[in-house]
Amino acid sequence: MANSIIDLRSDTVTKPTSAMRAAMTAAEVGDDVYGDDPTVNKLQARMAEMVGMEAGLFLPSGTQSNLVALMTHCQRGEEYIVGQDAHTYKYEGGGAAVLGSIQPQPIENAADGTIPIGKIRSAVKPDDAHFAKTRLIALENTIGGKVVSEHYLAEVRAFAIDAGLSTHLDGARVFNAAVKTERSVRDICQYFDSVSVCLSKGLGTPAGSVLCGSKAFIKAGHRWRKMLGGGVRQSGILAAAGLFALDHHIERLTLDHENAAFLSESLAAIDAITATPPDTNIFYVNVAPADCEALHAYLRTAGIVATVGPRTRFVTHLDVSRADVNRVIATFKAFFLMPEARRRLAFH
Ligand SMILES: *Cc1c(COP(=O)(O)O)cnc(C)c1O
């Protein structure tokens, strides 16, 4: 469709394909609160196998999946070490603190998305009644679209074992990391006690995340899921979309990465723009604050949706083709070809 909307805000905006919808329609279902949904059970087992852990738990959202993980690892009055920029700390409404009575110990992320081991080490509290008990290190991969190196993950794992801490991976986009580095998700997840994987980002389902860990961990997490309102009855309809995505939407993530690389490179070639080359499907574009409002309006007119600001995040996904990318580039070029005064005044 020549004039369809191109939405670059997030990879959550993808709509289920007709083949995915057909798989959902055909799903065999049961009441998952009783553990009776065969499609959910199949998805949980399959994801656990893929990440190399014993068991899986299907949850409605990544936020709830991370929260269940944190509440299972940490009890009231305990703390988790986490990056300032991490989703589990910054973008989940403070759920761990509010609902879990878990204290976050945030640490500033380095430019590559890691949290330096030295800073983790000095944040671990001694066993003393003054302090919350440090229990967990939570990492994210990819973070801001950046792949975190396995060398670093191994270092954190070794430190955690030494310090008697557990490790959780917010692997909302761990498949992007795996495809990018040509490693299996199992390779990446071997450094963690638990991992949360989103199906509704690059994998393109309407909803759902899978939390994986040991059998005992998932059994405890299952209780929290019910308490948090995440027990969904015939959720096999959603799990079927997840199974479909695991069959059909993993390898194609490479296309999203290629589209992001091409788009960022092409936009950066425009004088008024700087852009960071992406590792995966997310990158950031800088434009002069005085151009933002007009650019936002101009893009809208051309059917391109982005949250334009001085630093704008662009995300490629299943519903952005190479032809769409070319349309975005042409639209940016047309805008920035106009003299500064004219383009800034003309589009409000
Ligand atoms: C989207 C996202 C989540 C949360 O997923 P929702 O399904 O939107 O709640 C968690 N972590 C990261 C890194 C994410 O990008």
Could you give the distance between the termini?
27 Å
- Taking Cα atoms only, what radius of gyration do you get, to the nearest Å? 21 Å
Strand arrangement within the widest β-sheet reads 2-8-7-6-5-3-4
Alpha plus pi helix count = 15
The geometry reads as: globular
Into which percentage range does the β-strand content fall? 15-25%
- Helices and strands, in order, run as EHHEHEHHEHEHEHHEEHHHEEHEEHH
Query: Structural class, judged by helices and strands?
Result: alpha/beta
| Spans where pLDDT lies below 50 across 5 or more residues | none
- How confident is the prediction overall: mean pLDDT? 96
Hetero groups in this structure are: pyridoxal-5'-phosphate
Number of strands: 12
Could you walk me through the main structural features you see in this protein, from its secondary elements to its overall organization?
- With 348 residues, this protein is of the alpha/beta class.
- It has helices at 18-25, 38-51, 62-73, 87-90, 95-100, 117-123, 150-163, 174-181, 185-189, 215-227, 236-248, 253-268, 289-301, 322-337, 340-346; strands spanning 6-7, 55-59, 78-83, 103-107, 133-140, 166-171, 194-198, 209-213, 274-275, 282-286, 304-305, 311-315.
- Helix 1 crosses helix 11 and helix 12 (253-268) runs parallel beside helix 14.
- The longest helix is centred in the last third of the chain and has 16 residues, at 253-268.
- 48% of the residues are buried.
- The mean pLDDT is 96.
- Pyridoxal-5'-phosphate (PLP) binds at residues 61-63, 66, 87, 140, 170, 172, 198, 200-201, 209.
